[in-house]
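ok so I'm stuck.
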Amino acid sequence: MSDKPLMMSFYDRPNVEKYVIPIGPGVPLGLEAVTNSRLGIGGVYGSWGQSYDNANLPALVAERMGQSLAAEDVLNLSELGFDFRQHVPTLSPVDHLQLELEIGSRLLKRALQACGWNASDVDGVLIGISGPVSPDYVSRISQMAGIPESALKVSVHKACDGSMGALHLALNPELSRPGQLNIAERLRGKKVLVGGIEGLSRFVSGSRDKNALQLFGNGMGVIGVVPGETMKLLVGRSFENYDEEGLLAVRMSYSHSRLTVESGSMIDIVQDGENTVRIAGLMHEPKNGESIEMAGLMGMVKLFVRSGVQVVEDVYREYQALMDKLGQSGKSITLGIVHQANYKINVLKAKHLSKLDIEFPMPWLLNDFGNVSAASNMIAFLRKLPEINLGDHILFDGFGAGTYYDVMAVSMGE
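replied:
not stuck anymore, here's the structure
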């Protein structure tokens, strides 16, 4: 684990474009665009809401819980890799909807600019969202950004794995179920926006979980890729394993059949019309009806490390076998883009992988966001994008509540 980030609020970074959205008392918005002309890939990431450092966060948590945190309940967030995060004020449901529609549409418009694309060029928009503010959110922000009705709109609800699930769907035709739309085949060679948008300040405000209120914040990131051209899948695996114990229980703010017998999967795939698809993951929901309930930090380690290491090992071994088959045994993974759940989880994963003789850089990059769920992999990728070269092999590692895992090795623009 390397690349210790600078200690500053996201809004204080030199390349962040700052705005105020005129909703409620006025909501700060920051966007940072990134382009790598060598690869033909661009994108944008950002956050919205007031920035809280670790010293000021407990007062916000106390306001939301209706009582102060006990001293023993205040997390050492710096040790977990988080120094700042962004939160919105208390708003009405209508204002939350208007705010996140504005945020999402601005993100897509700025991503188009970073890619040098016209909105009319886009054939697909795939967005991971843990707790969507509306069921048609992706369609609405796409329309607001001027993207054609004919473009495929895919909402992926797999908690923190959402954006990696979206990217995997765009790249891997083997994920398609018989008789259903093959998203990767439809989008191959087309201009596609892929990312994650997480209004987690709104979502966790419906909880009294003291850990969740300290860990999560708002974040978003979208990249523009041409599947099979600017980014090619080498190997990948999508894995699911139901969280029977409810170690990370999350309320499903989207429709789900709650039936897993027929498909053998916890994931509902629903196509509403020719161009709209919803990928909905079954969650172990909080019994108290709140939005999220966590079984402590050790519970998160138990939930994600063992299975997460196994999935990465499986993909890495398959990658090695492919390189051997292609006569490229000396080729290696240039960079790992790992979900930034918290620093300690990622360090522990790296240690377990090292014992299996699997080593590649896994930088920690999101100290100014908190855990931003499905947005984290995209933000991390965009922060490293300028350093990536043609032909580099990148390993994406996504994992989230449910539990869901999407791990893939890709070749960049080769």
